[in-house]
Amino acid sequence: MSNPLNMKAVGSYRYLPLSDPESLVDLHIEKPVPTGRDLLVKVKAVSVNPADLDIRKNNNYEAESPKILGWDASGIVEQVGPECQLFKPGDEVFYAGSVTRPGANSEFHLVDERIAGNKPKSLDFAQAAALPLTSLTAWEGLFDRLGLSHNAEENESILIIGAAGGVGSIATQLAKLAGLTVIGTASRPESVQWAKDHGADFTINHNSPFAPQLKEIGFESVDYVFCLNDTVQHFANMAEVITPQGKICSIVPVAKASQAGSLDMDLLFYKSVTFVWELMFTRAMFQTKDMIKQHDILNRLAELIDNGKLKTTLAERLEPINAANLRLAHEKMETGRSIGKIVLENF
Question: Which molecular-function annotation in GO is an example for this chain (predicted)?
Fold first, then answer.
């Protein structure tokens, strides 16, 4: 007989290659109890992100308690903390959570209500779970960091590096909704097609110099650049094609560069270019005063989806949520060639 105070989960005790069955293991752990503004969510679906891979690889010591990954989830509110104001039991939610807390690869999960949104009514749980982390990153990168208006000035352009990935697929759609001309980078026929299917007006190959390719399609420069892949590798290209007084935002820290190096910020000096970083976890990690903005963004995204203006980037479903399927999803992500999002559903 199962213990009602326990729950299924998937976690790791130390970093191991995915070929090792101990790299991610099935667990039974204690079911958490909500306090403060926490929601206890019965998890219905989770998706996999580069954050899962990074955190699993950084778990390089043998720990007594397992590390639970998973920063994209959808589910049903089971119970609320005493200070909750936004949700009640039975509400369907979607969210990315916080890297300072256990992830959502568990039957039940605690999340602060200020960073959760109402699940889009038109999507099932798997389709919804594909969205939170990438959508929040795209929204914050475009509107909070780059300062885009929701109604762009005429003829403004944006170059999205990595347009076929999870964030790129959402950023492309949001930038088009804002009225920008979107140039996405993609290097394979299937990723080029994915980028165009999600709204890219043009595509160029990020493995070749940017400027000549942009000139071929009629652009001397671009007003904005959103870098979603290897900041160091692409920095000189970005600096060359950004318009004077333009803005660049990246989500990839220098430490994750494919080759050792640093950013020559002087390349931006004469053009007075703004360079900003975006990390979706910042608000939750530092409990910022505007933390509740993520609740508002997720609700706005849900409205756009339910109104048919934005579509999920779910590309593949796996079932059930268990260690074997999560290892498979991580393997697919580690190739760096995955398109869209991989989602696992149902324990």
Answer: oxidoreductase activity
